[in-house]
Amino acid sequence: MRKLLFYTLLCFVLLVIPPMTAAIHSHQTSKEKKILRDWTILIGLVTRHRHVHVNGGEYVEFNAIFLHYRIHWSGNIRAGFFHDFEKIFLPSFHYGYLGSHFVAARFTMGLPPY
Q1: Which of 16, 41, 67, 71 could in theory staple to 82 by disulfide, Cβ–Cβ 3.0 to 4.6 A?
Q2: How far, rounded to the nearest angstrom, does the alpha carbon of residue 101 sit from its chain's CA centroid?
């Protein structure tokens, strides 16, 4: 039963979630002022998160088991996957769900390019 549930969740993450996040885009008319805001969308499996206080700000830190990301950083948009327990460090304010082992959220800060 566990194996069936694990493979079902893995197929859901691999087949359904990445095409949904790759199709996210926004429309702007020519009259609107373009504002460059950085953001990060994360969907996938993570380790348990912990809150960290650095320089007066509150951040959340976790390791990515298998995580699909879509990042807007200084006008550039990129997408891909984090895996193999890569450490992710973002501000704690987010829209969406950040659970113990699953995240589907939009953070108000872009991850910088490596």
Answers
A1: 67
A2: 13
Distance CA(38)–CA(11), nearest Å, equals 30
Query: What phi, psi does 29 have (nearest 5°)?
Result: -85, 165
The two three-digit tokens of residue 80, written as one number: 């891909």
Reported for 104-110, long-range contacts at CB under 8 A and 24+ positions apart, including other chains, are 104/42, 104/43, 105/41, 105/42, 106/39, 106/40, 106/41, 107/39, 107/40, 107/41, 107/42, 108/37, 108/38, 108/39, 109/38, 109/39, 109/40, 110/38, 110/39, 110/40, 110/71, 110/72, 110/73, 110/74
- What pTM, to 2 d.p., does this model score? 0.62
Rounded Cα gap, residues 79 and 30, in angstroms:
26
Between the CA of residue 63 and those of 22, 29, 87, 99, what are the distances in Å? Answer: 22, 39, 4, 13
